[in-house]
Amino acid sequence: MEEQIDVNDLGENIVRTLKTIFDPEIPVDIYELGLIYDVFVNENYDVKILMTLTSPNCPVAETLPMEVKEKVSSINMVKEVEIELTFDPPWEKDMMSEEAKLELGML
């Protein structure tokens, strides 16, 4: 019998994992930086992450989404991971959490 896990608990685990991924140019994790727009988890434990980059010309445009997919895929119980990259709305500094702004000396 397969272990059952609450979808909300899995979502929280995904967020904890996202907080271990850092933008190489900014010493703040991508979740607090505001690059993660949404995380969807369905009843089959398939995950879709809607994310952006600080700019379309971001030097890690190829590697950062792959890192997100690999790390989230490694979470126990996660089946499939889809990353959707969007620039609508474009990322702005206002999307950062208070914690990120404090870390970067913006408060």
Automatic annotation (TrEMBL):
InterPro entries (alphabetical): Fe-S_Maturation_MIP18, FSCA_dom_sf, MIP18-like, SUF_FeS_clus_asmbl-assoc
One Pfam family per UniProt: FeS_assembly_P
Residue intervals of the MIP18 family-like domain: 12-83
SUPFAM superfamilies in alphabetical order: Fe-S cluster assembly (FSCA) domain-like
Alphabetical list of PANTHER family matching this protein: FE-S PROTEIN MATURATION AUXILIARY FACTOR YITW
Protein name, per record: SUF system Fe-S cluster assembly protein
Organism per entry: Paenimyroides baculatum
Record lineage: Bacteria, Pseudomonadati, Bacteroidota, Flavobacteriia, Flavobacteriales
